[in-house]
Specification:
single chain; mainly beta; 14-stranded mixed beta sheet; 10-stranded parallel beta sheet; 1 helix; Pectin_lyas_fold; Beta_helix; Sheath polysaccharide-degrading enzyme; Pectin_lyase_fold/virulence
Length: 345
């Protein structure tokens, strides 16, 4: 089921006051499976600058698929509580000033039996808020989708990774969200948040903000994996729980950084098999210029060969600098960082 509600805003100048009055909400019902069609009157939405946005209320999988296919810039898709079974995809884009919003409570659950739970394929400028994604191979996937901002979602129960910014999906974010129980196929490919692609530097998924999230337990890959080719990720104020790391594919830390110019600040972690954070040079000139600041690491119980809070495997003062400040702290393990890496103020 799908219901569309148009919302228009206009301004009225009142003499001597200059007040702004918001006017107009008209409820328009539409059966599931319809688009911006003649039953709703002439339509030219904010994507081309002339029409009102819509609030599109959906309560079943068919309605959600229709809404994802027909949404235009400025629209809001409102999920009713309930289960939405299937694989959901959109290629529609909003704009920087009028993103498309998909929102619902944690009791609005997208569940898939395989494939991707929610796939934004070339679909830029979206806000994804509040709902849950579970089941399937992967959770929320962005491919060539810029300006996608994810907030307060729950992602769990997946064969592979939870949230993936891929194919040069830049200027996005995931904030205030919960990810756990990923990588259930046993191959160690269950990262919580994955930025970029392995095996080259063509994927420029740059400037991704990962802030205020709760990651783990039972994330079988790293909680966060930042790949070579990507630049400017910010990992801030997250809580990591590495209980469940498999060690497959060298998954033995909360965060693995192979991109450049990454900020890692004010995070808290516990339960790791080896290190807290690692940097690597999977490609020449990558894995450099990371800044670690204000992180708290609990390495008690770690049994790997290194056991450093911050293991900079590729440090070179001139060619590949990394900054570790003195306000990072660690309990357990062998120490804050590996020998040869300076700790500054």
């Amino acid at each position: 089921m799908l219901i569309r509600r148009r919302t228009a805003l206009s301004t009225v100048a009142l003499a001597g006051i200059g007040a702004v009055i918001a006017v107009g909400t008209v409820a328009v019902g539409a059966p599931s499976g319809t688009g911006h069609g003649p039953e709703n009157g002439p339509w030219s939405g904010p994507g081309n600058g002339t029409g009102p946005a819509e609030v599109i209320e959906v309560s079943d999988a068919a309605g959600l698929k229709d809404a994802l296919g027909s949404a235009q810039a400025g629209d809001t898709i409102q999920l009713a509580d309930g289960t939405y079974e299937g694989n959901f995809e959109t290629t529609a884009s909003g704009s920087g000033s009028a993103p498309i919003t998909l929102t619902g409570s944690a009791d609005a659950v997208l569940t898939a039996g395989g494939g991707y739970g929610l796939h934004l394929d070339g679909a830029s400028h979206w806000k994804l808020e509040g709902f849950t994604v579970t089941g399937g191979q992967k959770g929320i996937m962005m491919d060539a989708a810029n300006g996608v901002h994810i907030d307060s979602v729950t992602v769990h129960g997946l064969d592979m990774e939870g949230v993936h910014f891929r194919e040069s999906s830049s200027d996005g974010s995931i904030t205030n969200s919960t990810i756990y129980d990923t990588g259930n196929d046993g191959r160690g490919m269950g990262e919580g948040v994955y930025v970029g692609s392995a095996g080259g530097t063509d994927d420029k998924s740059d400037r991704i903000l990962i802030e205020g999230n709760t990651l783990g337990p039972d994330i079988r890959g790293e909680n966060i994996d930042i790949k070579e080719g990507t630049t400017g990720a910010r990992i801030v104020g997250n809580t990591f729980d590495g209980n469940g790391l498999t060690g497959a594919n060298y998954d033995d830390s909360w965060v693995d950084i192979k991109g450049n110019d990454v900020l890692v600040e004010n995070n808290t972690g516990k339960n790791t098999t080896n290190d807290g954070y690692q940097t690597h040079d999977a490609q020449d000139g990558w894995g450099c210029d990371t800044v670690f600041r204000g992180n708290k690491s609990d390495l008690n119980g770690a049994s790997g060969p290194d056991r450093f809070a911050i293991n900079v495997t590729n440090y070179d003062e001139q060619d590949c600098p990394v900054t570790v400040t003195g306000d990072n702290t660690v309990t357990g393990g062998k120490g804050l960082t590996n020998p040869g890496v300076p700790v500054g103020d």
